[in-house]
């Protein structure tokens, strides 16, 4: 999630392209590693940035889900589940802990949870969506990825 050491011009370009991506998106999944505190600490700022950009335009609540990844790495954990849950609660976001390396079920849960936060009217506007459509698409993507990697 970090941007490394960029020169001012690159920073400005990166900033504007991030803002463009935020304007384009309808909903957001922010992933941190439970083994990397910096990736967790940056979330409040990112979420405030997203909310300011999206909720400034209209009064709708922006659907955001926070995901703690690498749940399987117990011994390297530096961010507790409680901290993740509390942050999500305080910022009115969904929260999941998953292990992307272990199983795709967790990722499905994330997208299911995200879809539940999107107002029905928005989902109805897009062809082939709705909670079932999204979960079906995600299942197909993850199932294909698993088969490919065998
Ligand atoms: N044990 C474990 N490893 C994972 C998990 N998710 C990703 N990884 C590993 O973490 C490394 C980085 O994953 P990437 O997919 O490159 O993700 P990234 O956003 O570039 O992550 P970072 O390099 O950690 O900043 C890879 O070696 C992955 O295999 C997980 O849930 N558990």
Automatic annotation (TrEMBL):
EC number annotated for this UniProt entry: 3.6.5.2
Signal in keyword set: no
Keyword entries, A-Z: GTP-binding, Hydrolase, Nucleotide-binding
Any Pfam family: Ras
SUPFAM superfamilies, alphabetized: P-loop containing nucleoside triphosphate hydrolases
GO MF annotation list: G protein activity; GTP binding
Keyword Hydrolase carried by entry: yes
Enzyme class: hydrolase
Protein name, UniProt field: small monomeric GTPase
Protein family: Belongs to the small GTPase superfamily. Ras family.
Catalyses which reaction(s): GTP + H2O = GDP + phosphate + H(+)
